[in-house]
Write a structure and sequence with these properties.
- This protein is an alpha+beta fold.
- The chain folds into six domains: 108 residues, Orthogonal Bundle (Frizzled cysteine-rich domain); 135 residues, Spermadhesin, CUB domain (Jelly Rolls); 73 residues, Plasminogen Kringle 4; 58 residues, Complement Module, domain 1, CATH 2.10.70.10; 183 residues, Neurotransmitter-gated ion-channel ligand-binding domain (Acetylcholine Binding Protein, Chain: A, Distorted Sandwich), CATH 2.70.170; 213 residues.
- It is 22% helix and 21% strand.
- It is built from 17 helices and 46 strands.
- A hairpin with a 4-residue loop joins β33 and β34.
- α14 packs antiparallel against α17 and α15 crosses α17.
- It is elongated.
- It is a single-pass membrane protein; Multi-pass membrane protein; Single-pass type I membrane protein.
- One of its GO terms (molecular function) is ATP binding.
- InterPro entries: CUB_dom, Frizzled_dom, Frizzled_dom_sf, Kringle, Kringle-like, Kringle_sf, LDL_receptor-like_sf, LDrepeatLR_classA_rpt.
- Pfam families: CUB (PF00431), Fz (PF01392), Kringle (PF00051), Ldl_recept_a (PF00057), Neur_chan_LBD (PF02931), Neur_chan_memb (PF02932), Sushi (PF00084).
Length: 1067
């Protein structure tokens, strides 16, 4: 058996089983026993269930501290009893909550308490134990209440007072521990405090908090330098120096528990406030350095010195730690510097301590804005009197004002004696805005709430609306404060002006209605989804998704629809709009609104079968009238016919019964031949083709529709045959253009297309340049769908210049003459182009040079053999023929059929090459040495020469004849000389008288024989030389015969090549 004991009077037992194995269950019982009531201290109250205690400071604080939540029941703010009016001035609020911190349950118990007498005695004490003790006791007797929630005195306010006033019996013992350490509490320190409580002046503060007043001082976290600062510590140091000084705080050492991420400090942290904490009106210092930081908290560890420069001479430094992970803490000091003079802007006033400028709208608003709280001093409501009462008497009867006003006048007399007073009165009579008089009154004599002695400034939204409408007025004061002086005001705690919830004034900056629909009828999205407006225009009353004009930049209220903005359906209160006049029958308008602003335009149109009579666009004029009367709609026969024809018509269905059999009449003509490419071959032509077919579904009676005989409709709206271009040479061409078709009342549909087409051709190039070409432009329908084409019959109507199957037309393009005919067979319709070339150009530029080159080749055989340029000439002619062949082929397409002229050139080139080889052989023969064979001499020099008309060139053989002409010769230097020739020398010898010796007879006989032999030898040598010259002449003559033979053969071959080429090259 197991027992369980509940801590409360409620216990819940839950039983649950799964879908698997089940057991036998359980049996239990309970018994209720008396529980001893809790023991509560004098600072606590028992919960209604008697199960616990709750501190008086935590009753009605918004959190459930009792199990039965009884501490948050019956929480109501009540007026402070008049008997506590002696507390006025020390506390700045008028409502309290029961029980108070003395435990008084209601007003009766409070008034019967002896503490009231002690409170009066404490007020009259000339030298209290602490300057704040009276205000502190008042806040205990009458704790502040806001929104039915308690705002008890702050814990940081309590320790100094309790330490200084230990002998005062009127204070609740141990009250400090029950007070909150947060910003959700109340504190009101006295302006000047004596040195009681906490360290002051030069020196240091080593404990947990205190007041520092010296020109410089130091302070540190608890136990710094001796250990960790500990857990759950809350310390507040209040630095209070002279108002003309500003403290400058330096953190020399800083090591706290860090947050989970940089910029996040939820555990241990330091915060610094300008002003007396926890007054939320004074801003917290935003740290600009630190390893881990967020907007207002500093934590983690700093690696270098951090200097903080507050703005106030009263600075609160707060240190807080959670329940774990404490660190070494921090050590800090501060010095002071002179503030210097503060220049206040227009619409601002210097606080009494000369340390801060605040807007005039913040004076006497019930909240402390000056650090010395002088803005809420001497605030009182005075009745309107004299001329001000006549000008600014309020309808609700609250004719009380508070000064200073928004312009800076301290009293009513100062206002009335000022130079701008007359201008303000004139401005009140202006027509620039309906609320200008009320607004000027609120600016120069702010209304005052007598119950709280607080004044309210005009709301910024109202100010912006008035200023944008009236700033251009001559009476508008130049020193009028700008609207941003009240930007920080609570939008619910300002004078909104007599605004309407159904219309707007000016540009609608102060519109507060709940209209959330745009002009187009769309619902607005919430302003919360658009952070820019919410952040920058907090004064603009951006409630939910209602239409507003944040920033006063638009012409009228607007809102967001998703991420786009639109004007709202909010009328101006001036009524300066054009009202919706409704719509006559069959008239349509765009846009449709309840009203239109000057400058708006409305576009009118009629239904599809009607025509608009009147202005199609009408404008709303500046005087709120329309520029013209409403238009009307009259019946449009043309549109009515279209609607009747195509009401049930389907372009998907063919205009015949099944099976589909539609015959389309085809005709057309060629407008122009744009280009012709023979190498393709292909032709680009501009053609007009026309298709006509009968679709009985599209017939009508003209007299029923205003005698309309024909209609022009879009191609896509009617059935049309599938037409495909045959022999298409343009890859970018996919279909004929879908131009409008013409309908006739008889049901005939006419589709006429004018377009450029590129198609292939058939070129018969054999007889180039006497060749011809056929270029058909053919269009084919889908025979499988029952679509047929036919030529126009006799009597059929076609477009002008269109060809039928029995007509033709002539044209020309370049060197071609063109004959155009039309034909149609079954599913194909063609425009045939028969082209015949004019040969003049190519005969002169291509053929003639080829013939001339062939003739020039014959000259090769007439050039002398011994000339060196004979071969080069022949090669030049051959190469020229090659060039001619290239030129010819460049004009014609590549084909297996070679044109005649090409074949002729190839054959001629073959002959030329052959005879060039023969010429080479002849040249070789002409230089040959030796005897010419007798058969060659007989065949070539005799018979062949005679055939070639060269005569008999054969010669007789030469015979050697030996004669004796000299008897006495000697051989000297290759020649023989007569040794016995008598000359002058011999005679001279005889004349000398010398006698010649007698010659021996034998010797003389021998000499005679030798002389005869020498003579015979000379004769043989001369014969041999003559014979050699005769042999060389016969080879040359043979070469001449061969040249003549080649010339004749070349001429004959060239002549034979013509019929041969015709025979061999014909396809």
């Amino acid at each position: 058996m197991r027992n369980y004991t509940s801590r409360t009077n409620i216990m819940t037992v839950t039983f649950k089983s799964d879908e698997w194995v089940s057991g036998t269950g359980f049996n239990a019982s309970f018994v209720a026993v008396d529980k001893d009531p809790p023991t509560c201290s004098e600072n606590e109250k028992e919960c209604a269930d008697l199960l616990g205690c709750v501190a008086f400071a935590k009753i009605c604080d918004g959190s459930n501290d009792c199990e039965d939540e009884s501490d948050e029941q019956n929480c109501v703010c009540e007026q402070i009893p008049s008997e506590l009016s002696i507390c006025k001035g020390t506390i700045d609020y008028g409502t309290m909550v029961y029980p108070n911190l003395y435990g008084h349950e209601n007003e009766t118990v409070l008034l019967n308490s002896p503490i009231l007498g002690s409170l009066q005695a404490l007020q009259s004490t000339p030298h209290p134990c602490h300057d704040d003790v009276f205000a502190f006791v008042c806040s205990l007797l009458a704790p502040k209440c806001v929104g039915n929630m308690i705002k008890p005195p702050c814990r940081v306010w309590c320790p100094d007072i309790m330490a200084s006033c230990q002998n005062l019996t009127d204070l609740v013992p141990d009250i400090c521990a029950t007070l909150p350490f947060s910003e959700d509490c109340y504190i009101n320190r006295a302006t000047n405090q004596p040195g009681a409580g906490g360290p002051e002046g030069p020196g240091s503060a080593s404990g947990c908090g205190g007041v520092l007043r010296g020109l410089n001082s130091t302070f540190q976290s608890p136990n710094f330098g001796r250990g960790n600062y500990g857990n759950n510590r809350d310390c507040v140091w209040s630095i209070r120096v002279s108002p003309h000084l500003v403290p400058e705080i330096s953190f020399h050492s800083f090591k706290l528990e860090g947050g989970p991420a940089d910029g996040n400090c939820p555990y241990d942290y330091v915060r610094i406030f300008d002003g007396e904490w926890p007054d939320s009106k004074f801003s917290s210092i935003r740290f600009q350095s630190g390893e881990t930081q967020d907007a207002e908290r500093l934590c983690g560890e700093l690696t270098e010195k951090l200097v903080v420069r507050p703005k106030s001479y009263i600075v609160s430094v707060i240190f807080s730690s959670d329940g774990q992970n404490s660190k070494e803490g921090f050590s800090a000091s501060y010095t002071t510097r002179d503030r210097g003079a503060l220049p206040c802007q227009r619409g601002e006033e210097l606080c009494d301590d000369n340390a801060q400028c605040i807007p005039l709208s913040m004076y006497c608003d019930g909240k402390f804005d000056c650090w010395d709280k002088s803005d809420e001093k001497d605030c009182q409501c005075n009745p309107l009197q004299g001329e001000l009462e006549d000008l600014c008497a309020r309808r609700d009867g609250s004719n009380y004002v508070s000064f200073p006003n928004m312009i800076g006048h301290k009293t009513a007399n100062e206002l009335q004696n000022s130079q701008e007073y007359s201008s303000l009165k004139s401005l009140m009579r202006s027509l620039c805005h309906v609320d200008i008089a009320v607004f000027v009154c609120e600016m120069m004599s702010p209304s005052c709430d007598r119950s709280t002695a607080t004044s309210k400034a005009p709301c910024r939204s109202w100010c912006e609306e008035i200023r944008s409408a009236c700033e251009s007025e001559a009476e508008w004061p130049s020193d009028f404060p700008s609207c941003d002086i009240i930007e920080s005001q609570d939008a619910n705690n300002c004078v909104q002006g007599p605004t309407s919830l159904h219309c707007y004034h000016g540009k609608g900056a102060n519109f507060r209605g709940q209209i959330a629909v745009t002009e187009t009828g769309r619902n607005c999205t919430a302003w919360a989804d658009h952070q820019y407006e919410v952040t920058n225009f907090q004064w603009a009353n951006l409630d939910n998704n209602n239409c507003r004009n944040p920033g006063n930049v638009a012409e009228r209220p607007w809102c967001y629809v998703d991420n786009q903005w639109e004007y709202c359906r909010v009328p101006p209160c001036s009524g300066q709009v054009c009202r919706n006049r409704g719509l006559p029958r069959n008239v349509q308008a765009h846009p449709v609104k309840e009203f239109y602003w000057p400058g708006d335009k409305v576009t009118y149109q009629c239904a599809s079968t009607y025509t608009l009579k009147g202005s199609a666009v009408i404008k709303c004029l500046d005087n709120s009238t329309w520029s013209s009367s409403l238009p009307t709609c009259i019946v449009n026969e043309y549109r009515q016919l279209l609607e009747d024809l195509f009401d049930v018509y389907s372009a998907e269905a063919a205009p015949s019964e099944l099976p589909v059999d539609v015959t389309t009449v085809f005709s057309g003509h060629v407008v122009n031949i744009v280009s012709l490419d023979e190498t393709g071959p292909e032709v680009q032509t501009e053609v007009v083709v026309e298709f006509r077919w009968i679709d009985n579904r599209l017939s009508w009676t003209p007299t029923s529709y205003g005698n309309i005989d024909t209609l022009q409709v879009a191609y896509e709206r009617v059935w049309a045959p599938t037409v495909i271009l045959q022999r298409n040479a343009d890859t970018g061409f996919t279909r004929l253009p879908t131009v409008d078709v013409t309908l006739t009342s008889s049901g005939e549909v006419i589709w006429q297309v004018q377009t450029l087409v590129t198609t292939t051709c058939d070129l018969d190039q054999y007889l180039f340049p006497f060749d011809s070409m056929t270029c058909p432009v053919c269009l084919k329908t889908d025979l499988t769908k029952g679509e047929r084409l036919s030529c126009p019959l006799e009597g059929n109507t076609t477009a002008e210049n269109n060809l039928n199957c029995s007509t033709s037309s002539q044209t020309s393009t370049g060197e071609w003459s063109v004959t155009i005919t039309a034909e149609s067979t079954n599913d194909t319709g063609c425009l045939n182009l028969a082209l015949q070339r004019n040969p003049t150009y190519h005969m002169c530029t291509t053929i003639a040079p080829t013939i001339i080159l062939a003739i020039l080749m014959a000259i090769t055989f007439l050039i002398p053999i011994d000339k060196g340029d004979r071969l080069s000439y022949g090669m030049a002619v051959l190469l020229s023929m090659v060039v001619s062949l290239v030129v010819i082929t460049s004009f014609l397409p590549r084909s297996t059929n070679i044109p005649f002229v090409g074949t002729f050139v190839v054959v001629s080139m073959s002959f030329m090459a052959f005879f060039m080889l023969v010429t080479l052989a002849i040249i070789i023969i002409s230089g040959k040495e030796g005897d010419l064979p007798s058969w060659a001499r007989t065949v070539f020099l005799r018979y062949m020469a005679q055939c070639l008309l060269m005569g008999n060139l054969a010669k007789k053989s030469y015979t050697l004849e030996v004669g004796r002409s000299k008897k006495d010769v000697i051989y000297e230097n290759g020649s023989f000389t007569n040794l016995w020739e008598e000359g002058p020398q011999r005679a001279e010898e005889k004349s000398t008288g010398e006698q010649t010796k007698p010659v021996d007879a034998n010797l003389s006989a021998m000499i005679s024989g030798i002389r005869e032999s020498i003579d015979s030898l000379n004769a043989n040598i001369e014969a041999m030389g003559q014979q050699k010259e005769d042999e060389e002449s016969e080879w040359v003559v043979l070469a001449h015969v061969l040249d003549r033979l080649c010339l004749v053969l070349y001429i004959i071959s060239s002549i034979v090549a013509v019929p041969l080429s015709l025979y061999l090259g014909h396809p």
